[in-house]
């Protein structure tokens, strides 16, 4: 793709961002309409200015594309293009500042919350695309004989764009904090969590264990701690959906022979006995008292309430509150399951103090010894640290950071030493001894379990998480993070996969904008198309299958919204009224 076409693409994307901000201003209406109209007129005025700048840019590009132009003339034109981009950036900053003033009180509309999060996500998707394409341009220009001036202008442009992205995201965060709905988000997050925890407590504590319907779950699945925990969560979801008390069979557990209940509090105070008058395997008759289920991958038939589905009765409130409803839903089951025994809590508290864990801090999880080369690709320390650097660069635009801190968890002790050597300006917090016992050969021991529990605890309590979502440890930390903050859907950077739940039902997205392929590896998309997503390439494009055309390929990530799957779980209305 030529330099000219790249610049035109940038112009189009900036215009789209402006359109999104204006749409947000118009879509949140209701109260204070006259004030909103005044702000909208101001935004339209700024948009007209931006369009004028775009026209000037197109004229400059036509001149630049003139083969008759000399190298000196082209260098001068590139400088003018750079200045025009800077002018356009400042115009958009003014537009964002005006949108920040539109504050409300009370409870936001669903449309406002969805659009607010979409703007934040699309700023990041835009940056993913632009930075990826700019790197390609830099490589092309580096091969030109007379490219020194062009390279300098492009480097300045990329740097300015990077700062502008940070400014936009900080403005977006400030808009969220000052839009009048912050109290609602904290209150609603607590209320929804309390509601689900109340239902789970009721389910797990029947008045008569001898006659209660039960679901038995053997936790000793042949995999690591994160995988075993997700197996327990799957069993718990099945129990919730069938209104059965979950019974964990954990004696002889490979991590701790005494069982799960010696490390964490029992999941029931009244019913730990798996016996019953009748037993059956899924899908047994609903009248069978004791039900057993296989691992999620072998479940047949597969019910609609498996992940990624959330309960229909909670969906209206949850989709308004949270940017990743399924991660929040999974996090609620993890929260109920992982209630430490006093000794376990003491271990976690002592570990936190010993390591000197304090904020601000970024949690980094690097998996090395297993799955790399088979289920996951190798990623260097520098790749992780680039995302850490970007987090702190953005944070330092709005607050003073005395010391950049990283909590680094890994199954390779050499990574912690490497980080301390190569990044001396960071306070790298980590325990190489924990990393040693996290290796496959020593994984199933009490020490290893303590280490992985401490790692997950500190990763989930970090301000931001950098990891690979191909790792179950990383996904568990992200799920728990949803119980720490009202909405932590965007407090992560995954170097590979998008969030998923092992054994999940299909993950679909819905197109909100048409897309005409510009390369052979892209697919055509029409508004309203359902696309089965296979992953995000974090360069502005995602991969998936258009279920209307059966085409497989790439499509722009910002042109789709996640489809929230909803299933009819029991409503537990009698519990809510208690």
UniProtKB/TrEMBL annotation:
One of its GO terms (cellular component) is Golgi cisterna membrane. Residues 367-368 are annotated as: Important for donor substrate binding. It comes from the Eukaryota. It is an enzyme of class 2 (transferase). Pathway: Protein modification; protein glycosylation. It holds the Pfam family FUT8_N_cat. Keywords: Disulfide bond, Glycosyltransferase, Golgi apparatus, Membrane, SH3 domain, Signal-anchor, Transferase, Transmembrane, Transmembrane helix. It is found in: Golgi apparatus, Golgi stack membrane. Belongs to the glycosyltransferase 23 family. PANTHER family: ALPHA- 1,6 -FUCOSYLTRANSFERASE, ALPHA-(1,6)-FUCOSYLTRANSFERASE. This is Alpha-(1,6)-fucosyltransferase. The lineage of its organism: Eukaryota, Metazoa, Ecdysozoa, Arthropoda, Hexapoda.
């Amino acid at each position: 793709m030529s330099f000219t076409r790249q610049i035109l693409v940038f112009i189009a994307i900036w215009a789209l961002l402006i359109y999104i901000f204006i749409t947000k201003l118009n879509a949140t209406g209701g109260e204070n309409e006259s004030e909103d109209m005044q702000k909208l007129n101001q935004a339209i005025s700024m948009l007209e200015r931006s369009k004028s700048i775009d026209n000037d840019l197109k004229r400059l590009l036509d001149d630049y594309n003139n083969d008759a132009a000399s190298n000196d003339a082209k260098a001068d034109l590139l400088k003018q293009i750079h200045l025009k981009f800077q002018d356009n950036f400042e115009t958009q900053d003014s537009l964002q500042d005006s949108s920040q003033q539109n504050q409300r009180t009370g409870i936001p509309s669903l449309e406002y919350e969805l659009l607010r999060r979409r703007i934040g996500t699309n700023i990041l998707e835009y940056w993913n695309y632009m930075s990826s394409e700019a790197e390609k341009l830099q490589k092309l220009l580096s091969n030109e004989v007379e490219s020194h001036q062009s390279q300098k202008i492009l480097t300045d442009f990329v740097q300015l764009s990077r700062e502008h992205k940070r400014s936009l995201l900080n403005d977006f965060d400030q808009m969220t904090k000052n839009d009048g709905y912050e109290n609602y988000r904290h209150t609603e997050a607590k209320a929804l969590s309390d509601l689900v925890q109340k239902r789970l407590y009721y389910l797990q504590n029947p008045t008569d264990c001898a006659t209660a319907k039960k679901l038995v779950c053997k936790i000793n699945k042949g995999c690591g701690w994160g995988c075993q925990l997700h197996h327990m969560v799957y069993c718990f979801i099945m129990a919730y959906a069938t209104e059965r008390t979950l019974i964990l069979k954990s004696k002889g557990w490979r991590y701790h022979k005494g069982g799960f209940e010696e490390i964490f509090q029992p999941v029931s105070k009244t019913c730990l006995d798996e016996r019953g008058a009748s037993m059956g395997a899924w899908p047994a008759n609903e009248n069978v008292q004791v039900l057993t289920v296989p691992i999620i991958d072998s479940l047949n038939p597969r019910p609609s309430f498996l992940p990624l589905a959330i309960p229909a009765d909670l969906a209206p409130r949850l989709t308004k509150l949270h940017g990743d409803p399924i991660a929040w839903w999974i996090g609620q089951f993890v929260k109920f399951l992982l209630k430490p025994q006093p000794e376990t809590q003491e271990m976690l508290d002592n570990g936190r103090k010993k390591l000197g864990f304090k904020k601000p801090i970024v949690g980094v999880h690097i998996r090395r010894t297993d799955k790399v080369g088979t289920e996951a690709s190798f990623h260097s320390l520098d790749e992780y640290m680039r995302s850490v650097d970007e987090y702190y660069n953005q944070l330092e635009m709005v607050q003073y950071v005395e010391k950049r801190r990283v909590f680094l968890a890994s199954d390779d002790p050499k990574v912690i030493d490497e980080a301390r050597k190569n990044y001396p300006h960071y306070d790298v917090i980590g325990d190489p001894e924990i990393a040693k016992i996290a290796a496959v050969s020593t994984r199933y021991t009490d020490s290893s379990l303590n280490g992985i529990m401490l790692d997950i605890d500190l990763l989930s309590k970090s301000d931001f998480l950098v990891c690979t979502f191909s790792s179950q440890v990383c996904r568990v930390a992200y799920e728990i993070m949803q119980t720490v903050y009202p909405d932590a859907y965007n407090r992560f950077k995954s170097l590979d996969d998008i969030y998923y739940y092992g054994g999940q039902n299909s993950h679909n997205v819905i197109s909100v904008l048409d897309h005409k392929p510009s390369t052979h590896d892209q697919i055509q998309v029409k508004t309203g198309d359902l696309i089965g997503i296979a992953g995000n390439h974090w360069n502005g494009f995602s991969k998936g299958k258009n279920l209307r055309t059966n085409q497989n390929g790439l499509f722009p990530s910002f042109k789709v919204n996640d489809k929230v799957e909803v299933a009819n779980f029991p409503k537990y209305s009698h519990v809510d009224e208690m």
